[in-house]
DNA sequence: TAGTCGTGGAG
DNA sequence: TCTCCAAGACT
């Protein structure tokens, strides 16, 4: 193919057609980094308000480095993949401590930072520093698989190497930032997973898949997902002062360090209010009275897991949560300050709107 | 390597 | 309603 024509057609299209997005207003390495982490596996429209709020609250790398974990989780609340913000926090603190607050511009250094994988390293280095390093995400693999007729299975981690080599070979050294962004923008707007808009594509003359009419069969992507189902019982428990009992999740695993209403996994068909009462007594030494009917049933779908949560209402008769570090009684007003996963936000909304 | 880790949108 | 996600990284 005519590499130079491909590069200029692609980049010129990007200059004319790129979307007006908040993180494209400047190339500050910290801001580029924040946007790239937020955009991991997350749609642009979802990220925009989070990005604006984030930089309003943490306008500089130092401001974010000095934040406490509760506040960084709260600002990420609802965005998902919460380890991203904890890793970013760890990495930013390291940049402030070891690099004087300047985001490293060397691949070997930036790649050592927590949460910075090959894609994010390439994106930050090219967009913020103009380095000719590929940034291979799902868009780029899809676009290149069609342009170059690459049939490697993009679901296999090993395939990334093939696409990195391809992207490096096509790199537009006059403007690596625009080149990388243009490949992704093309994937987002034109070269979409289903029904790509080839007739609007600025590089269709260079596209092998289009010339053969096989664009709908690329990229090759296998992988089946196994969705588990879990049934949970949760309780919104009030003490005599009207405070609500909440629990901090473990620091590792699903929804790490987020807050939730006390809950337990149950065997289907055996979920009854007695189980909750017994759970509170044996697990937390709390003597409680639980309403006999759930006030809501919440269904929540994760990538590889589904929760069905029956939520009950209850009152504390006696008990002491001292010794249970993860538990806390908070007022309804205070509760709003804690970061909850969406599934438990649903429970809280249903609780406040419940018929009594 | 394959599994883990969220959420809301689109077809 | 159901499937498949969307600018990935970590273990």
Automatic annotation (TrEMBL):
SUPFAM superfamilies attached to this UniProt entry: DNA-glycosylase, Nudix
Q: Where are the transmembrane segments?
A: none
The record's similarity note reads: Belongs to the Nth/MutY family.
Q: Give the record's keywords alphabetically.
A: 4Fe-4S, DNA damage, DNA repair, DNA-binding, Glycosidase, Hydrolase, Iron, Iron-sulfur, Metal-binding
**What PANTHER family does the annotation carry?**
ADENINE DNA GLYCOSYLASE
Give a yes or no for keyword DNA damage in this entry: yes
Recorded catalytic activity of this chain's protein: Hydrolyzes free adenine bases from 7,8-dihydro-8-oxoguanine:adenine mismatched double-stranded DNA, leaving an apurinic site
Which domain of life does the protein's organism represent?
Answer: Bacteria
Its EC number(s): 3.2.2.31
Q: What does this protein do?
A: Base excision repair (BER) glycosylase that initiates repair of A:oxoG to C:G by removing the inappropriately paired adenine base from the DNA backbone, generating an abasic site product. 8-oxoguanine (oxoG) is a genotoxic DNA lesion resulting from oxidation of guanine; this residue is misread by replicative DNA polymerases, that insert adenine instead of cytosine opposite the oxidized damaged base. Shows a powerful dicrimination of A versus C, since it does not cleave cytosine in oxoG:C pairs.
* Name of this chain's protein: Adenine DNA glycosylase
Query: Does the keyword GTP-binding belong to this entry?
Result: no
What is the enzyme's class at the highest EC level?
Answer: hydrolase
Cofactor, how bound (note): Binds 1 [4Fe-4S] cluster.
Cofactor or coenzyme needed: [4Fe-4S] cluster
Against Pfam families, the record matches this protein to: HHH, HhH-GPD, NUDIX_4
């Amino acid at each position: 193919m005519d590499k130079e024509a491909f590069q200029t057609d692609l980049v010129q299209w990007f200059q004319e057609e790129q979307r007006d997005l908040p993180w494209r207003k400047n190339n500050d390495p910290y801001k580029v980094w924040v946007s790239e982490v937020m955009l991991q596996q997350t749609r642009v429209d979802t990220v925009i308000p989070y990005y604006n709020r984030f930089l309003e609250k943490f306008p500089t790398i130092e401001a974010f480095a000095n934040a406490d974990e509760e506040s960084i989780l709260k600002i990420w609340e609802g965005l998902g993949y919460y380890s991203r913000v904890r890793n970013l926090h760890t990495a930013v603190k390291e940049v402030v401590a070891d690099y004087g607050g300047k985001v490293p511009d060397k691949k070997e250094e930036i790649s050592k930072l927590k949460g910075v994988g090959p894609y994010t390293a390439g994106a930050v280095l090219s967009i913020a520093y103009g380095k000719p390093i590929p940034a291979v995400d799902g868009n780029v693999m899809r676009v290149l698989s069609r342009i170059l007729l690459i049939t490697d299975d993009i679901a296999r981690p090993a395939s990334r190497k093939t696409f990195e080599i391809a992207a490096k070979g096509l790199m537009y050294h006059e403007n690596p930032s625009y080149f990388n962004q243009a490949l992704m923008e093309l994937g987002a707007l034109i070269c979409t997973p289903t029904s790509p808009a080839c007739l609007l594509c600025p590089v269709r003359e260079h596209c092998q898949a289009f010339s053969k009419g096989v664009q709908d069969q690329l990229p090759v992507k296998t992988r089946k997902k196994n969705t588990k189902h879990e049934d949970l019982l949760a309780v919104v428990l009030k003490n005599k002062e009207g405070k609500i009992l909440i629990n901090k999740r473990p620091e590792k695993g699903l929804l790490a360090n987020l807050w939730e209403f006390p809950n337990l996994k149950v065997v289907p068909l055996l979920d009854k209010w007695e189980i909750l009462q017994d759970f509170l007594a044996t697990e937390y030494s709390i003597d409680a009275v639980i309403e006999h009917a759930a006030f809501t049933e919440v269904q929540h779908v994760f990538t590889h897991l589904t929760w069905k949560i029956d939520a009950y209402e209850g009152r504390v008769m006696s008990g002491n949560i001292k010794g249970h570090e993860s538990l806390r009684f908070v007022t309804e007003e205070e509760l709003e300050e804690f970061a909850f996963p969406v599934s438990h936000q649903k429970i809280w909304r249903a609780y406040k709107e419940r018929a009594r």
